[in-house]
């Protein structure tokens, strides 16, 4: 089949391999992008898939928590340049809508929520765009709530309280001491910001994600030429290590470098005076998943060839 330049470009961005290797992988796998990534990984040519494209969005991630500590929300507002993130009016607006998000469900409801002076959030944002002179977007929001316990937060690269480039919420279900929950919750939130877990625990792992990883490991092991019983043990051990890398409760706490998160929670239970359940987490990175406008791949090649 015919492989396009854009397909080659996308695979190169995902894996970091050379142009010819990317094209060969696509040819071998009939143009299937995921299969091509796995094929390259099995060959040892790509360690892990990278995100296609680079983030281009600027702006702020904002976090707000309820007074009783049982609810938290995280919101992202994008702008064209990082200068806007330092604009006082933009910061005030972002901080306020994070608080408004505590009382709504979903970004559409937030956009329609009353802001001030009879105007909703969407209309106020339109006015702000006209005032600052730069396009902005209310992109997304999420909430975490517990019936008993605490929702802790952490903001990385904070410009002021609750505003920065990475926002994390961690929900702890417990009837224990809230001060203890607040402390351990913030520490785990800091860990999430640094370690970027994909799932809460092994039960939460998407079966398709696990199956893909296992297939890649099987393909890698098959090329080793080892006996089947050895291969099976290799795969079992590598899958266990994989889960330790992607599941929050299985990860090693970045603060001490040796204790698993699930054991950090167990230790906190004694101080809190009650059992603690890690109910969920949210991690927002500013501009995550938004691609920059890039020149057409063919044009890039032409520029290179023509000097």
Uncertain parts: 47-56, 292-307
Helix/strand structural class: alpha+beta
Q: What is the H/E string?
A: HHHEEHHHEEHEEEEHHHHEH
Task: Please report which band the strand proportion falls in: under 5%, 5-15%, 15-25%, 25-35%, 35-45% or over 45%.
Answer: 15-25%
CATH arch. level architecture of the largest domain: 2-Layer Sandwich
The strands making up the biggest β-sheet line up spatially as 5-2-1-7
CATH homologous superfamily of the largest domain? Elongation factor Ts, dimerisation domain
Inertia-based shape: flat
N-C termini distance: 31 Å
Number of strands: 9
Q: What is the typical, i.e. mean, pLDDT?
A: 86
Name of the level-1 CATH class of the largest domain: Alpha Beta
Helix content: 40-55%
Q: If helices are DSSP runs of H or I spanning 4 or more residues, what is the number of helices? A: 12
Radius of gyration: 23 Å
Descriptive terms for the model:
single chain; 307 residues; alpha+beta; Helicase, Ruva Protein, domain 3; Tetrahydropterin Synthase, Chain A; three-stranded antiparallel sheet; 12 helices; 9 strands; 46% helix; flat; disordered C terminus
Folded structure, characterized:
With 307 residues, the chain is α+β, with helices and mostly antiparallel strands. It folds into 2 domains: 1-54 and 295-307, Helicase, Ruva Protein, domain 3 (Orthogonal Bundle), CATH 1.10.8; 58-199 and 252-285, Elongation factor Ts, dimerisation domain (Tetrahydropterin Synthase, Chain A), CATH 3.30.479. The chain has helices at residues 5-15, 19-28, 33-42, 82-85, 88-100, 107-112, 121-132, 178-195, 207-222, 228-246, 261-272, 297-306, and strands spanning 58-65, 71-79, 114-116, 119-120, 136-145, 149-156, 163-164, 166-174, 276-285. The strands form 3 sheets. Strands 5-2-1-7 form a 4-stranded antiparallel β-sheet. Helix 2 packs across helix 3 and helix 8 packs antiparallel against helix 11 (261-272). It is flat and about 70 Å long.
């Amino acid at each position: 089949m015919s492989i396009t330049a854009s397909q080659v470009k996308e695979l190169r961005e995902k894996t970091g391999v050379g142009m010819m290797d990317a094209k060969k992988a696509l040819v071998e796998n009939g143009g299937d992008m995921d299969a091509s990534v796995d094929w390259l990984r099995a060959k040892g040519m790509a360690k892990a898939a990278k995100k296609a494209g680079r983030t281009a969005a600027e702006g702020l991630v904002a976090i707000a928590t309820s007074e009783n500590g049982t609810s938290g929300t995280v919101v992202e507002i994008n702008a064209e340049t990082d200068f806007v993130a330092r604009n006082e009016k933009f910061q005030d607006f972002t901080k306020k809508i994070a608080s408004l998000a505590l009382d709504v469900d979903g970004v559409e409801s937030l956009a329609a929520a009353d802001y001030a002076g009879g105007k909703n959030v969407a209309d106020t944002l339109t006015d702000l765009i006209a005032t600052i002179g730069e396009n902005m977007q209310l992109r997304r929001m999420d909430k975490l709530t517990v019936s008993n316990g605490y929702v802790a937060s952490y903001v990385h690269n904070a410009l002021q309280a609750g505003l920065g480039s990475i926002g994390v919420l961690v929900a702890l279900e417990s009837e224990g001491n809230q001060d203890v929950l607040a402390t351990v919750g913030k520490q785990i939130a800091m860990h999430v910001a640094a370690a970027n877990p994909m799932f809460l625990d092994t039960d939460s792992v998407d079966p398709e994600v696990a199956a893909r990883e296992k297939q890649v490991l099987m393909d890698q092991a098959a090329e080793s030429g080892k006996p089947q019983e050895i291969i099976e043990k290799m795969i079992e051990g590598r899958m266990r290590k994989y889960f330790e890398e992607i599941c929050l409760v299985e990860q090693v706490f970045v603060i001490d470098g040796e204790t698993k998160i699930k054991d950090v929670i167990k230790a906190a239970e004694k101080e809190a005076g009650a059992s603690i359940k890690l109910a969920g987490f949210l991690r927002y990175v500013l501009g995550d998943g938004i691609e920059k406008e890039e020149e057409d791949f063919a044009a890039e090649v032409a520029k290179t060839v023509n000097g």
